[in-house]
Amino acid sequence: MQDALIRLTDFWAGHGCLIAQPMNTEVGAGTLNPATALRVLGPEPWRVAYVEPSVRPDDSRYGDNPNRLQTHTQFQVVLKPEPGDAQELYLGSLEALGIDLRAHDVRFVEDDWASPALGAWGLGWEVWLDGLEITQFTYFQQSGGLTLDPVAVEITYGMERIIMALQSVSHFKDIVYAPGISYGEAFGQAEYEMSRYYLDDADIGTVRGLFESYAAEARRMLDARLPVPAHSYVLKCSHAFNVLDARGAIGTTERARSFARMRRLAHDVAELWVERRAELGHPLGDASTRPAEGLEAPAVLYPEISAPGTLALEIGVEELPPHEVGRAVEQVRAGLTRGLEEAGLLTEGGEVHTYATPRRVIVVIGDIRPREPDTEQVVRGPRLAAAYDADGNPTRALLGFARGQGVDPSEVGTVTVGGGQYAGLVRPIAGRSAARVLAGLLPRIVEGLRAEKNMRWNAPGLSFARPIRWVLALLDEYEIPFEAGGLVSGRITHVHRTATISDVSVPDAGALIPALRAHGIEPAVERRRSQIVETAGALAAEVSGTIDVAAERPLVEEIVNLVEEPVAILGSFDPSYLELPEPILTTVMKKHQRYLPVRGAGGEGGLLPHFVAVANGDCDHAAVRAGNEAVLRARYEDAAFFFQQDLRSTPEQLMAGLSRLTFTERLGSMADRAARIRAIAAELAARVDLDERERAVLGRAGELAKFDLASAMVIELSGLAGTMAREYALRAGEDEAVAQALYEMELPRSAGDALPSGVAGALLSVADRLDLLAGLFAVGSVPSGSSDPFGLRRAALALTAILRGTPRLGALTVPDALTIAAGHQPVEVTPEALAEAGRFVTRRLEQAFLDDGHPVAVVRAVLVHAESPAYAEQAAADLTKLLTDERFMRLTTALQRVLRIVPDGTSAGYDPALFTEPAERRLYATFTQVEADLPERPSLPEFTTAALPLAEPIDRYFDDVMVMSDDPELRANRLGFLAAVRDRVAGVLDWRQIA
User: Fold this and answer.
1) How far is CA 990 from the centre of its chain?
2) Phi first, then psi: what are they for 350, rounded to 5°?
3) Which of 198, 406, 773, 950 gives a 20 to 30 Å CA spacing to 385?
4) 509 by DSSP, 3-state: which?
5) pLDDT per residue over 228-285, tens digit each?
């Protein structure tokens, strides 16, 4: 390991990095060293590399866990501004460590980073070596609450992990640290003793006093305008907090307040550092990103084609998040086709083909017209009457117009604009060449690319999910010349970084896709999907297993967009791990490693001790298999450790740990939230017909609600919430129905997921979502844009799904349920907040109906019943059928006539004695009979059957009766009567929405 640290130091020193020293106080990560935390701020360039012992008290394991240490070694690199080729430089550093990039599967897998305590965040990846995370790679966007310019790239190597993989050892103690000395021999004692200190022996009162002293000293240093010592004391503050946290001494309110205090200090340190560097005149210079200088562009020769041609556009990026791949290519396709259609360059026969991988977005379009169609430009001059005098001679107005247009007055004719006649000209405008049009269109497409979460890099004007690094733009064999954000288009594409020559020149547009395939890259999503499914299935069959492709469809789709050249590799694990609950094993495989589980064939379906990993590109299968197997073994060891640790506690004992888990500062701890869920569910149950057995199950499940959130397993693997509650409850001897209710209260986890099958689980699940919505809307934590940190959109969808799919909860309405939840919140829930939460749920219900395939008009018509999602769903189904019924459509048309004529705000009220026309007396009689025939809350078919007799009398009424009579009394009476009709039908549908 010592040699590896020396090699990395030499490598980065050779690339212009200053070699700094570790921080001389405990830090949780190399990021906190002032060589990073402060130096990424401000405009000065900075390149640095250093070793950083990183101390995390909560990871203390007494040296027993093979993969977790309270002090681990990071190697930290910061490049500011980001150089444009940081990934390539990083891969070169791996080669300097002796890693054969062609033999191993090295991948950049989405992993965004944030440190709320620092007010810092960035976008990037975790880097995998044969499935093992070895590095965090981040483009810093903000630090200390300040936006960074220029953007810096941070590369953080996890040295123990890398060396364990290189030395093929399974425990950190067995690492050869230096010749003749193991890691355990050098640091084992310190690891044990510091673990003892952090977990058992640290004096809580003393450390709490240190926290206060450090925070006060940090503030004093800020007041003295000394940001460096202030930062040092913020770090000491942070470490003291982490020690208290490891000792279990941090309560909910204290956690929130401490975080807020440290965040304020970090922000103030950052601001003061920036001010001090400016006062010093930025000694290292100014590398902030500036817009491109407004220099006169050189003359460009745009190529001409004489016949319809093929366009190829490739936007090359650093590895996109999987969920952004399809979205990005759709943006490009839509923008490109729209622009070509507007320019008249897209022919009817021009096929549009899209391709997308993590590193490229491609659109290829055939039969592009050589030129835009010629057009005419109408140039309007003075009005015709003002252009000539009585003798027909040009006036001064016309002469001025002709002079301004550079023509003889005799060439001016007559043009018609907006119905008026003017003197003017009609000039023919020759269509531009396709290349010239594209040279204006393509940069707008590149610069307009946006993602759910966007970042900046060293490219003025560009902002996207990950940096854009190249643009290929060809029209047949010709390059389309343009520039976007400092990138110049050309004919070069980039293949695998490990290729002997990774830059490939493409001769023409039609050759792009074959060129990529010739270098092993499959750009077509559907082909990669087929390759993965077929090769993984074949490998599973070799061990008498199968891949459940239907069940693993979301994972398959993610893998498709993680690789450019899928290479399936069969791995195995020790069958003894099958003794762990299956959800633990599959969650680790799928969520953490993106492995496809192998199940027994022949209908048995049980999990086998095998998996399929999908590497990116050709590699040494044996080496990659061994690496992935080692990673899975380590993760299963961790899981087994957590599982056994949890089993030593009863559900009640785990429940007590919820008090140490923060929900939000104003809404308390997870224990507080669990208590609210229990109370809300009990109050909801009073409105549902439960038998004695169901009430007992609900009561016991409510007492244990959310207890598994305090388990080590769920803290490590949050996706197992509910699953572990059921497992631990059953092992503790709880009733099976109680255990199932604890599992089902977490359902549904996503759209299309299973719903609770039992009424106890359904009530707890509804109560859970109601508590989220009422509480968080009360404190203003409302989703905005793509930001939804508490998953309120998912909660609202789950709430409506359960109410739609659980007939026994049909008596519950959303407003009433929210009101119940509001009554249990520790803060005031204003009527406005409740109304906003209700509207939020309605919008989610509307989206759910649309996703289910209901027409927009149908959905909007039934949203008057959004308070009762099950009723609304039935109404949507009924309305869809009735839209084909001519009698219903006639009734609808008649009712719409009523709705159109009655002014808003008109109150219902009339005197039948004032009806003077036979048609109004007849409509009154029919309306009275319909009212008598309708049940209190009719279904749509019931309403339709009863109300159909209204259609003909309404039509006759409007034919024979003057509603807006000159007599004010008659007019008011007629409008009051029609308002009564309006009010009676208004709660059935929004009739205006039906076409």
Assistant:
1) 34
2) -75, 105
3) 406
4) helix
5) 999 999 999 999 999 999 988 887 677 878 888 998 999 999 999 999 999 999 999 9
DSSP 783-849: -BTTB-TT-HHHHHHHHHHHHHH-GGGTT--HHHHHHHHHTT-SS---HHHHHHHHHHHHHHHHHHH
H or E element that contains 77? strand 71-80
Using the structure block, give the residue that is written with the tokens 């922000």: 267
Q: What is the 3-state secondary structure (H, E, C) of 92-126?
A: HHHHHCCCCCCCCCEEEEECCEEECCCCEEEEEEE
Token readout for 232 is 């040092």
Cα 629 to Cα 739: distance, rounded to the nearest angstrom: 33
789-838, pLDDT tens digit by residue?
788 999 999 999 999 999 999 889 999 999 999 999 999 999 999 999 99
Torsion of CA 491, 495, 500, 506, to 10 degrees: -20
Tell me which amino acid residue 72 is. H
With vertex at residue 626, the alpha carbon angle to CA 628 and CA 619, rounded to the nearest 5 degrees, is 85
Query: What CA–CA distances, in Å, run from 920 to 615, 874, 908, 967, 972?
Result: 78, 34, 16, 16, 14
Contact 427, 375 (CB under 8 A): no
C-alpha separations of 746 from 799, 802, 974 in Å: 11, 11, 55
Helix, strand and coil percent figures for the chain, each rounded to 5: 50, 15, 30
Q: Are 198 and 247 in contact (CB under 8 A)?
A: yes
Buried b (16+ CB within 10 A) or exposed e, 515-543: bbeebebbbbbeebbebbbebbbebbeee
Give the three-class secondary structure for 53: strand
**CB of 661 within 8 A of CB of 778?**
no
Residue 427 bridge partners (DSSP): 377
SS3 79: strand
- Distance between CA atoms of residues 940 and 926, nearest Å: 19
Continuous segment of H or E residues that includes residue 442: helix 434-448
Q: At what angle do helices 814-822 and 670-685 cross, to 10 degrees?
A: 130
Q: Are 104 and 111 in contact (CB under 8 A)?
A: no
DSSP string over 337-359: HHHHHHHT-B-TT--EEEEEETT
Quick one: tokens of 119?
């007010």
Helix runs in 657-791, H state only: 670-685, 692-703, 712-716, 723-731, 736-744, 759-778
* Token reading at 690: 């439960």
Q: Under a CB-based contact definition with an 8 Å cutoff, are residues 580 and 573 in contact?
A: no
The DSSP code sequence of 897-926 is HHHHHSPTTPPP---GGG--SHHHHHHHHH
Name the pTM for this structure: 0.85
